[in-house]
UniProtKB/TrEMBL annotation:
Superkingdom as given in the UniProt entry: Eukaryota
Record's subcellular location: Nucleus
Pfam families: TAF
Coiled-coil zones: none
GO CC term, one of those recorded: SAGA complex
Limits of the TATA box binding protein associated factor (TAF) histone-like fold domain: 1-46
Protein name stated in the entry: Transcription initiation factor TFIID subunit 6
GO molecular function per UniProt: protein heterodimerization activity; RNA polymerase II general transcription initiation factor activity; transcription coactivator activity
GO biological process per UniProt: RNA polymerase II preinitiation complex assembly
Classification via Gene3D superfamilies: Histone, subunit A, TAF6, C-terminal HEAT repeat domain
Keyword list, A-Z: Nucleus, Transcription, Transcription regulation
Species for this entry: Pectinophora gossypiella (Cotton pink bollworm)
Main subcellular localisation: nucleus
Amino acid sequence: EINAEAATNLAEDVSYKLRQMISTIALHSEMMKKSRVDGSDVNTALMLADTSPVVGACAATYAPIGDEKLCCQVESLLNVADFALIPQSYVFSTLPTVSVEWITDEKSLNNNSNISVNLQNYYTKVARAILNLRKKPKEIAVEDLTTNTRIGPIFPNLFNLAVLVLNDDNLNALNVPAKKPLQSNVLDMVDALCSNPCSLDTNIQQQFQRLFPVMVSNILGNGSLADKMVTILTKITRTWPSFIAIGKGILFDYLSQGTKERLTAPMIKCVLALGRQALVECLGEHLDHLDEC
């Protein structure tokens, strides 16, 4: 037994649902040019509302009584406990749908709030595809990042993602089991961004200053992705020549503070990624210092 307040609230809710269903049925009947409503209209409205089946609902059945064949409705009694304990499975037949979003955002990069909702949704979906270890979603995302010229405002977000994933300490803290495949996907993303036509018009200097040391650290560790990172660094410095000065500052400072053992083959690869001129300057400015150590 329920109290008066609960009954009132329940009645209001039921009344609203009934009015909503009647409105849907009326609209459907009007569109179908029907002059009368039958049970199929109710079923159609329930199907369009994606309403779950009600356990115990069934068509009315009748049974003959006596010699005169009088018919009366048979009341179905259900064992609620049995229905609750037995798993019920229902299959809904739905048509496949396709969602298409046009990205037209060309706002400033200085404030993330200037990024449109569609572009934010795009970033979320692309990030999930890149971090997905399945091959096909990643390939589709990389292909779009290479050619989509409307994604300039989220370049910093994508580079921040690269910095996060390429840092082994971050992945260790998150207990990520498959680090190398994940980092390989992110490098493919960075490669795609460097190939994007709008990359030349995008200011990512701050992101590069964070990304460069992370990649150099991985290269000096001579990991399995070292060669791939050298290739990406070379492409970055060719795409944004102004970053060569940033890279030289970081590498030359690292060399000047250590011994000659720091001038290793991986370090030479890092310097070569900045161009031959950078290598000449490196040897000219720091070789004497290294010999004295």
